[in-house]
């Protein structure tokens, strides 16, 4: 059952307009009603609440303390109604609306294929556009409204903190070699030993938390990054160099989990320690969650959970 106050929606609008324009006459003109009708409307609202809402003085009227309190709730109610209107419009348009999702290489290769496959199998046709890129660049597109969500690595120093984020999966980075590499049979190594290797391949880490964490360990242990390393975002290139040319690789536990699990790649142990890194789902705060988007996000979360189940720490 509606409350008494809910039956006075037009009176609430009349009251807030009077406060906004500071006079009964100006508000009546804007609302296209007579001044006596506007006065009766506001007084009726005061009767319902049992308090005075306006200081009636010349030349301007102003809200009382109770009036100010009511205005705050009117603004909140308007915001909720606007959300409801946007939701209804989104539902109307959802059949033809495209979900634009940006993702880093990890999510694009290990989470989204399963999520999209499951959506097609279980939920029929949902129009989805996937864009791969660096997390920082994708978040700029999210900020500009070009994307609906981004799956990417956590950002340093509170960057993009205006977004709502949820953790999807954590990955670890290890120095690894092929099981036949002589280094696989050695005991604990030093980071200096690793950095002195002529054959070292790692992901391009520019500006990432991984680069920062590795830099901390290099400083702590008094060594520097190998100047002759190969950097690549391609797991295929890393895999080839490790298996065919006996490279040491800085590997993601997700990218190479199968090889680590079956023993064909061995994790090197030593005096260094790198933390886990989180892949997050980023969305704009307050965005309308349409039914197709809700389905898509749930499938992404389910796929991330499945992905996390096999990760080697």
TrEMBL record:
It comes from the Bacteria. GO terms for molecular function: DNA binding; DNA-binding transcription factor activity. The keyword Iron-sulfur does not apply. One of its GO terms (cellular component) is cytosol. Residues 1-64 form the HTH lysR-type domain. Residues 67-94 form a coiled coil. The keyword Transcription regulation applies. InterPro entries: HTH-type_LysR_regulators, LysR_HTH_N, LysR_subst-bd, WH-like_DNA-bd_sf, WH_DNA-bd_sf. Pfam families: HTH_1 (PF00126), LysR_substrate (PF03466). Keywords: Coiled coil, DNA-binding, Transcription, Transcription regulation. SUPFAM superfamilies: Periplasmic binding protein-like II, Winged helix' DNA-binding domain. Belongs to the LysR transcriptional regulatory family. This is HTH lysR-type domain-containing protein. The lineage of its organism: Bacteria, Pseudomonadati, Pseudomonadota, Betaproteobacteria, Burkholderiales.
